[in-house]
Amino acid sequence: MTRPGRADGRGVSPVPPVLPSHRSRLARVLGDDSGQTTQWLPVAGLVAVGVVVMGVVAAGRGGQILGVLPFLLVPLVFGGSWWFNRKRVEAAKRWAEMIGWTWVGADNSLAHRWNGQPFGTGDGRRASEVMTGSFGPYRGTSFAYRYTSGSGKERTTHVFGVTTLSLPTFLPTLELTPENLGTRIVRAFGGQDIQFESEDFNRRWRVAARDPKFAHDVLHPRVLERLVRGDTAGMSVRIEGTDILCWTVGTPDLDLLGTRLGVLRSIIDAVPRYVWLDHGYDPATT
């Protein structure tokens, strides 16, 4: 079993265990070996309605059909969305069982567990599609997090795929978010962005922490090199309390779950032993 902080205290874990592909299983559940049919279902439905409309217009009754068109389209769109979501969840349950994880479903305590983004804002916060299980020596969790903002016509639902691993002890908060126009504006107005010796890393990530020394201790050169690889694109990462988590926009992509967990594990495994000792945990005793 790999233990955090072993060997030279700065080793980055090897390639993580490979989780089976979810996409092919989802495709089989939906009756499509290529995994592409489902994306055409809404289009096929709209084409069918279009054929009906054209036929009615050709028969000289276009005014009547245009009046009822919304009543045809709205059930089609919502019904198709409900059907696809149901099939996606059923496939995810089977996939969780296949890899030895436990399907939980909804657990809204996760929506209030952490304080940093994307949590702690908006209304109707909820966690769904929750599954948990082991990833090496750590406990992992994957779920979809949703909240709403605005009101009336401006009301918007925000969706994120969240992946977490448990830590053996409490650690200070350290957050990494992708560099973009927004983070550069924040930095221009005095927002924190801890700099490191790797320019590639500095261009890719904005780093914030109350204790810059802790950030430098954890994000040493070998971890910086790991975090500029292509498989971290779109991820935001945070150590908070007894968890390390990452989140991306949209529902969880289970094809990428193994990659997300592997990135998080590589960070944990590379934490130097003296950092663990400073926070009351000795990896040599486990």
Account of the 3D structure:
The protein is α+β, with helices and mostly antiparallel strands. The protein has two domains: 26-98; 99-285, no CATH class. The protein contains nine helices and six strands; from the N terminus they run H-H-H-E-E-E-E-H-H-E-H-H-E-H-H. The chain has helices at residues 23-29, 37-58, 62-98, 181-188, 199-204, 212-218, 221-227, 257-269, 273-278; strands spanning 102-105, 123-135, 138-149, 156-178, 205-209, 236-249. Strands 1, 2, 3, 4, 5 and 6 form a six-stranded antiparallel sheet that branches. A hairpin with a 2-residue loop joins strand 2 and strand 3 (138-149). Helix 2 (37-58) runs antiparallel to helix 3 (62-98). The relative contact order is 0.16.
List keywords for this structure.
single chain, 286 residues, alpha+beta, 2 domains, 25% strand
Question: What's this entry about, in short?
Answer:
The protein is α+β, with helices and mostly antiparallel strands and 286 residues long. It has helices at 23-29, 37-58, 62-98, 181-188, 199-204, 212-218, 221-227, 257-269, 273-278, and strands at 102-105, 123-135, 138-149, 156-178, 205-209, 236-249.
Radius of gyration: 23 Å
* Residues in helix, %: 25-40%
Number of strands: 6
The number of domains is 2
| Count of helical regions | 9
Distance between the termini: 10 Å
- Work out the strand percent: 15-25%
Overall mean pLDDT score? 81
The structural class is: alpha+beta
What order do the SSEs take from the amino end to the carboxyl end, as H and E?
HHHEEEEHHEHHEHH
The shape, in one word, is: globular
Largest sheet: 6 strands, antiparallel
Low-confidence stretches at least 5 residues in length (pLDDT < 50)? 6-11, 13-18, 22-41
